[in-house]
Amino acid sequence: MTETIVKIDLSKSAYENDMIHNRWHPDIPMVATVKPGDDFIMECYDWTGGQIENNDNADDVRDVDLTQVHFLSGPVGVEGAEPGDLLVVDILDIGAFQESQWGFNGFFSKQNGGGFLTEHFPDAQKSIWDFNGMFTKSRHIPGVEFAGLIHPGLIGCLPSKDLLDTWNEREKELYDTNPDRVPTLANLPYADTAHMGRMKPDEAKVAAAEGARTVPPREHGGNCDIKDLSRGSKVYFPVYVKGGGLSVGDLHFSQGDGEITFCGAIEMAGWIHMRVNLVKNGMEMYGVKNPIFKPSPIKPVYDDYVIFEGISVDEDGGQHFLDVNVAYRQACLNAIEFLTKFGYSKAQGYALLGCAPVQGHISGVVDVPNACATLWLPTEIFDFDINPTAEGPKKMVDGTIDIPLSKDKE
Amino acid sequence: MTETIVKIDLSKSAYENDMIHNRWHPDIPMVATVKPGDDFIMECYDWTGGQIENNDNADDVRDVDLTQVHFLSGPVGVEGAEPGDLLVVDILDIGAFQESQWGFNGFFSKQNGGGFLTEHFPDAQKSIWDFNGMFTKSRHIPGVEFAGLIHPGLIGCLPSKDLLDTWNEREKELYDTNPDRVPTLANLPYADTAHMGRMKPDEAKVAAAEGARTVPPREHGGNCDIKDLSRGSKVYFPVYVKGGGLSVGDLHFSQGDGEITFCGAIEMAGWIHMRVNLVKNGMEMYGVKNPIFKPSPIKPVYDDYVIFEGISVDEDGGQHFLDVNVAYRQACLNAIEFLTKFGYSKAQGYALLGCAPVQGHISGVVDVPNACATLWLPTEIFDFDINPTAEGPKKMVDGTIDIPLSKDKE
Amino acid sequence: MTETIVKIDLSKSAYENDMIHNRWHPDIPMVATVKPGDDFIMECYDWTGGQIENNDNADDVRDVDLTQVHFLSGPVGVEGAEPGDLLVVDILDIGAFQESQWGFNGFFSKQNGGGFLTEHFPDAQKSIWDFNGMFTKSRHIPGVEFAGLIHPGLIGCLPSKDLLDTWNEREKELYDTNPDRVPTLANLPYADTAHMGRMKPDEAKVAAAEGARTVPPREHGGNCDIKDLSRGSKVYFPVYVKGGGLSVGDLHFSQGDGEITFCGAIEMAGWIHMRVNLVKNGMEMYGVKNPIFKPSPIKPVYDDYVIFEGISVDEDGGQHFLDVNVAYRQACLNAIEFLTKFGYSKAQGYALLGCAPVQGHISGVVDVPNACATLWLPTEIFDFDINPTAEGPKKMVDGTIDIPLSKDKE
Amino acid sequence: MTETIVKIDLSKSAYENDMIHNRWHPDIPMVATVKPGDDFIMECYDWTGGQIENNDNADDVRDVDLTQVHFLSGPVGVEGAEPGDLLVVDILDIGAFQESQWGFNGFFSKQNGGGFLTEHFPDAQKSIWDFNGMFTKSRHIPGVEFAGLIHPGLIGCLPSKDLLDTWNEREKELYDTNPDRVPTLANLPYADTAHMGRMKPDEAKVAAAEGARTVPPREHGGNCDIKDLSRGSKVYFPVYVKGGGLSVGDLHFSQGDGEITFCGAIEMAGWIHMRVNLVKNGMEMYGVKNPIFKPSPIKPVYDDYVIFEGISVDEDGGQHFLDVNVAYRQACLNAIEFLTKFGYSKAQGYALLGCAPVQGHISGVVDVPNACATLWLPTEIFDFDINPTAEGPKKMVDGTIDIPLSKDKE
Question: One GO molecular function term (chains A, B, C, D) (predicted)?
Answer without folding.
Answer: formamidase activity
